[in-house]
From TrEMBL, chain A:
<dbReference type="GO" id="GO:0046872">
    <property type="term" value="F:metal ion binding"/>
</dbReference>
<dbReference type="InterPro" id="IPR006137">
    <property type="entry name" value="NADH_UbQ_OxRdtase-like_20kDa"/>
</dbReference>
<protein>
    <recommendedName>
        <fullName>NADH:ubiquinone oxidoreductase-like 20kDa subunit domain-containing protein</fullName>
    </recommendedName>
</protein>
<dbReference type="GO" id="GO:0015990">
    <property type="term" value="P:electron transport coupled proton transport"/>
</dbReference>
<feature type="domain" description="NADH:ubiquinone oxidoreductase-like 20kDa subunit">
    <location>
        <begin position="38"/>
        <end position="145"/>
    </location>
</feature>
TrEMBL record, chain B:
<dbReference type="GO" id="GO:0048038">
    <property type="term" value="F:quinone binding"/>
</dbReference>
<dbReference type="InterPro" id="IPR001135">
    <property type="entry name" value="NADH_Q_OxRdtase_suD"/>
</dbReference>
<dbReference type="InterPro" id="IPR001501">
    <property type="entry name" value="Ni-dep_hyd_lsu"/>
</dbReference>
<dbReference type="Pfam" id="PF00346">
    <property type="entry name" value="Complex1_49kDa"/>
</dbReference>
<dbReference type="GO" id="GO:0016651">
    <property type="term" value="F:oxidoreductase activity, acting on NAD(P)H"/>
</dbReference>
UniProtKB/TrEMBL annotation, chain C:
<feature type="transmembrane region" description="Helical">
    <location>
        <begin position="139"/>
        <end position="163"/>
    </location>
</feature>
<feature type="transmembrane region" description="Helical">
    <location>
        <begin position="36"/>
        <end position="58"/>
    </location>
</feature>
<feature type="transmembrane region" description="Helical">
    <location>
        <begin position="298"/>
        <end position="320"/>
    </location>
</feature>
<keyword id="KW-0472">Membrane</keyword>
<keyword id="KW-0560">Oxidoreductase</keyword>
Automatic annotation (TrEMBL), chain D:
<dbReference type="InterPro" id="IPR001268">
    <property type="entry name" value="NADH_UbQ_OxRdtase_30kDa_su"/>
</dbReference>
<dbReference type="GO" id="GO:0008137">
    <property type="term" value="F:NADH dehydrogenase (ubiquinone) activity"/>
</dbReference>
<comment type="similarity">
    <text>Belongs to the complex I 30 kDa subunit family.</text>
</comment>
<protein>
    <submittedName>
        <fullName>NADH-quinone oxidoreductase subunit C</fullName>
    </submittedName>
</protein>
<dbReference type="InterPro" id="IPR037232">
    <property type="entry name" value="NADH_quin_OxRdtase_su_C/D-like"/>
</dbReference>
Length: 154, 368, 359, 152
């Protein structure tokens, strides 16, 4: 079996590059404008002056094509679940999902409703932010958790 | 897909994932610029709250009910609580009525700031005003948090009164916030309501005449923007609104600018109401004990939420859970008026966000 | 490309090159190191990319400040200065894909060619008396306009190739807006050409040594600035990329580095037009010689004026909402073009007095 | 008082069609009507009595009395009065004439009542799902009393 010269020479280079790109990815997580529930005013507050999301490089953009994080803010109904699946597939590859609010995690105050699903049944979720509505500090904590996740190179 | 070959009308989906559509989907039939048809697609945030309420006792039911319009949780919660009190014939002590009025007006200012901020964003990426209103909302959220402990969903009103009394120090802080806010309102008026480009974008756009507004069933500021004076606080005289003097904001033109001017004037009125309510706050108990099982009966409450008049019809059957709760949501009617608007006036694709946000629909309120 | 007549012997090379290069490379560099410097550094590639990073960073910080926010902060410890580098690196790593029905070749051709056009336009701008990359034989202004009028062609191609209803509307709007903005630009620039009597940008700047053209050509100055905002799609005319109505206009379907390149197009357009605006009306590289007589102070003054003009363009984004497409077109056709024509008549009528003023 | 005038006016013109009418609260009148007279009374209310501002409509399910009651809430702008127009239909085969011709907003309310209670509205232009997802199985009406919620 020939000696993996490529691995030996390029190994450290690839490691450095991975570190640099992970650093750059964790500082520019662009969510898409997508609020699906009653926590949306709290999401606006997090983007507001007091709890400014943009300090962490989180810049909400208009379309899903350019976004890295699918921040599902609020409840997910069966009808909305189809659209979320569609959106998740349209996102470019290194993508993450953040469930903000008690409803996407466990259907929240409407747990026995006939038309609500939890987000895990629709898309794989990376970070859960509980709270109904979660305080802006909780959402920012979720963003920091996601940044640590990205740094580990998930 | 092309609807009709003759005018090359194509059907654009103003989908749930769109910066200005919130949790809703409009289907626009347009030929690129003129909009011929706006078809609302309900049901994206339908939680079946009326069914859930039948499985929750009265006090438990307040939490999901407030999720109808979280931005304006106090007024919405008040509608449900007043309906139960109306059905069971419960009298609320005077002090509780004043405290309820204060929190309702704080929540109204909150909701109107949200509407004005998003309208500035809809008019054309005007981020400064959107963020200024978000900054001012933080002040009112702190006030609500000091009074009730929660920023948005207060669950502060219960049948028979209020959960807790006003903490001391609340009055001074509220007066400080209100005086600062009145200066900010002047800043909004100069920099935005009289902004030349905003006027070209909103003056005469989405005009709704008074008869159409009544016939189609518009609600709240959308109705008062067309010159129809109907405000539940004056009609029903509930809570402390009877003793407080305030004017009903009405505008004649009925276009987007008029609707926002109504919301703007209502914010000024709300600050006056809070000041008066804080001045002559009566002493006495703030809560009356209410038995869990309420007698059989039927109650109907009409509350002026920030988006319009919400009517709740509650039927009790003697158990501790309501038999049936029927909610007539203002945003449901406003969305219907939006869908009928292209037939009344000419709307361009670029106008659609401004027109939609001038009615300030709250889609969770419409989907229940 | 005019190679400099002065042939520099290798010995007098200003920068000693330690790297063991082959013979002919050293010879090539020795011969025209100055042109290489122009291509790579000042009006060339590095300048445009650096301007792009600094302008976007400044815009995000300035907007955040106007909105009582802080803006990017933690990515670079000081004031988030590394934020744009992080965004650019992240974009290069993103997955690239085209929508199902898209025309693959065209879809990927546009992001590759689009940034080159405004970059080419920047080449014609003089940064010093002899610090100009391509003098275009005395017709710099004409070539500039020829190049910048190619941009709407590419926008329509991109909009059509992305096979999405929104992008088609966005691309068509961008074309309408460009035509409505280009006409006043030509006519206003014509006023300057009549006054200066030549199309060569260097001579136009030389004429402004005593007094800038902004004062005699004041109406043209105002029209050019407003039309420039329209041409480079800055607020209040950023209708083709109206986030609220058309998601991202003709750029909606692009992901990863393609989207990054198309963002450079927007800022390179702004750079090109503001540089032309400076050379025509604000006296180009003219200014009190601070860093010595030659090109150094010229470059310094160009950068200072560029900073001011771009800051004003960014400030407008905070203050103004956006015009509707028909209002923008009406503004263009009904107000800007008559104003520009009035400016030409004035210059024709008062040319001798203006020239006396300039001497 | 204007409430009595309204009740008197209605009982004169449609004596036998009116099952029951009472004044719930000051300025709130409730009238229960037979389904056949619904459209004629509604047009009478809108044209002559001035009830022109529709607020909403909903249904209530009474499995005990085997009936579903549809309630229309209409506000009169110049009388400053609210009327609750009610109509009962049997629970097993609920059928009602549509009122979308009288107040066009009822179009949406009736679609919601159809999908939640199963009331079929004759003459309704487009009886489709409004709030429930398109693939909701036929014949299941969530707001009826016999539809138990999954978890409970």
């Amino acid at each position: 079996m020939s000696f993996p010269i490529g691995r030996v020479i390029l190994g450290p280079v690839e490691l450095v590059l991975r570190k640099v790109f992970d650093w750059s990815r964790h500082y520019s997580l662009w969510p898409a404008h997508f609020v699906t529930g009653c926590c949306s005013p709290e999401f606006m507050q997090t983007a507001g002056p007091r709890y400014d999301m943009e300090r962490f490089g989180v810049l909400p953009l208009a379309s899903v094509r350019q976004s890295d994080v699918l921040m599902v803010v609020g409840l997910v109904t069966k009808k909305m679940a189809k659209r979320i699946k569609l959106l998740y597939d349209q996102m470019p590859e290194p993508k993450y999902v953040m469930a903000i609010g008690a409803c996407p995690i466990s259907k929240g105050p409407f747990r026995e409703s006939y038309s609500i699903v939890s987000l895990d049944e629709v898309v794989p979720v990376d970070v859960y932010v509980p709270g109904c509505p979660p305080r802006p500090e909780a959402i920012l904590h979720g963003v920091m958790l996601l940044q640590r996740l990205v740094l580990e190179g998930r | 897909m092309v609807v009709s070959e003759a005018k090359e009308i194509m059907r654009i989906s103003w989908g749930p994932q769109h910066p200005m559509s919130g949790q809703f989907r409009f289907i626009l039939e347009t030929d690129g610029e003129n909009v011929y048809e706006i078809i609302p697609d309900f049901g994206f945030t339908h939680r079946g709250i009326e069914k859930i309420l039948e499985y929750r006792t009265f006090v438990q039911g307040i939490v999901p009910f407030e999720r109808l319009a979280m931005v304006d949780a106090a007024n919405v919660g008040l509608a449900y609580v007043r309906a139960i009190e109306d059905a069971a014939g419960i009298e609320v002590p005077k002090r509780a009525q004043y405290i309820r009025t204060i929190l309702c007006e704080i929540s109204r200012i909150n909701s109107h700031l949200y509407a004005i901020g998003l309208a500035a964003e809809a008019a054309g990426g005007y981020p400064a005003i959107f963020l200024w209103t978000t900054a001012d909302r933080e002040l009112f959220l702190d006030l609500a948090e000091m009074l009730t402990g929660a920023r948005w969903s207060y669950a502060f009103f219960i049948p028979g009164g209020v959960r807790a009394d006003i903490p001391e120090g609340f009055k001074e802080r509220a007066l400080k916030v209100l005086s600062y806010f009145e200066k900010r309102l002047i800043a909004y008026r100069d920099s935005w309501l009289e902004n030349e480009i905003w006027l070209t974008r909103s003056r005469g756009v989405g005009r709704l005449s008074a008869e159409d507004a009544i016939k189609l069933g518009a609600a709240g500021p959308s109705l008062r923007g067309s010159g129809v004076e109907l405000d539940m606080r004056k009609e029903e005289k509930y809570e402390a609104y009877e003793e407080l003097n305030f004017k009903v904001a009405v505008q004649k033109e009925g276009d987007c600018q008029a609707r926002f001017m109504v919301r703007f004037l209502e914010m000024i009125e709300s600050t006056k109401i809070i000041r008066q309510a804080l001045e002559n706050l009566p002493p006495g108990p703030f809560k009356k004990p209410v038995p869990p099982k309420l007698p059989k009966g039927e109650g109907f409450a009409r509350v002026e939420t920030a988006r319009g008049e919400m009517d709740v019809h509650v039927i009790l059957d003697g158990s501790d859970k309501p038999y049936r709760v029927k909610v007539c949501a203002p945003s449901f009617r406003n969305l219907y008026v939006i869908s009928k608007l292209p037939k009344l006036t000419k709307i361009l694709v670029a106008d659609v966000p401004v027109v939609i946000w001038s009615f300030d629909p709250w889609y969770l309120d419409a989907d229940r | 490309m005019l190679i400099d007549e002065r042939c520099i012997v290798m010995a007098e090379l200003p920068i000693p090159i330690p790297i063991p290069l082959p013979e002919w490379v050293v010879e090539f560099i020795a011969l025209n190191w100055e042109t290489l410097l122009k291509i790579i550094i000042i009006p060339g590639l590095a300048f445009i990319l650096l301007f792009e990073l600094v302008a976007v960073w400044f815009e995000r910080k300035f907007l955040a400040d106007a909105m009582l926010r802080i803006g990017p902060l933690y990515c670079g410890r000081v004031a988030g200065w590394l934020q744009l580098i992080a965004d650019a690196l992240k974009l290069t790593v993103k997955e690239l894909f085209a929508p199902k029905g898209a025309h693959k070749v065209l879809f990927y051709a546009v992001p590759v060619f689009a940034p080159t056009i405004p970059a080419l336009a920047v080449v014609l701008i003089p940064f010093g008396p002899d610090w100009i990359l391509f003098r275009a034989g005395g017709a710099g202004l004409l070539l500039f306009f020829a190049l910048t009028s190619l941009i709407p062609v590419l926008t329509i191609l991109a909009g059509w190739a992305s096979n999405n209803k929104y992008t088609i509307i966005g691309a068509l709007r961008s074309a309408y807006l460009y035509i409505a903005a280009e006409m006043p630009l030509f006519i206003a620039a014509a006023g300057v050409v009549i006054l200066a009597g030549t199309f060569d940008l260097v001579e136009i700047v030389e004429l402004q040594s005593k007094m800038w053209f902004a004062i005699p050509q004041f109406i043209g100055f105002i029209t050019f600035f407003i039309a420039m905002l329209g041409a480079s799609e800055r607020v209040p005319f950023d209708i083709p990329v109206a986030e609220q109505e058309l998601v991202l206009g003709w750029r909606t379907e692009y992901t990863g580095i393609a989207f990054g390149l198309l963002m450079t197009v927007e800022y390179a357009c702004l750079l090109a037009w503001s540089l032309l605006f400076i050379t025509l009306y604000l006296g180009g590289y003219q200014g009190p010689p601070i860093l010595g007589p030659g090109t150094a102070s010229g470059i310094f003054w160009m950068l200072v004026k560029l900073g001011i003009v771009v800051a004003i363009a960014i400030f407008l984004r905070v203050v103004f909402p956006r015009y509707r497409i028909d209002q923008a077109l009406r503004l263009g056709w009904r107000y800007l073009i008559p104003l520009a024509l009035l400016n030409i008549f004035l210059t024709l009528a008062m040319k001798p007095y203006m020239l006396a003023l300039l001497k | 008082m204007s409430e009595e005038e309204v009740i008197k006016a209605i009982s004169e013109n449609f004596g036998e069609l009116v099952v029951e009418s009472k004044v719930l609260r000051p300025k709130k009148v409730s009238i229960t009507v037979k389904p056949e007279g619904l459209v004629s009374i509604a047009t009478f209310l809108r044209d002559s009595l001035g009830f022109d501002h529709p607020l909403g409509a909903g249904a209530i399910d009474y499995p005990a009395e085997n009936k579903i009651q549809m309630v229309y809430y209409i506000w009169s702008m110049n009388r400053r009065m609210l009327i609750m127009l009610r109509a009962d239909t049997p629970r097993d085969n609920p059928r009602l004439p549509t009122l979308s011709s009288v107040w066009d907003q009822m179009n949406l309310h009736e679609r919601e009542a159809w999908e939640m209670f199963g009331i079929v509205f004759e003459g309704h232009p487009r009886l489709e799902h409004l709030l429930l997802p398109e693939d909701w199985e036929e014949g299941v009406y969530p707001l009826r009393k016999d539809y138990k919620l999954p978890e409970r």
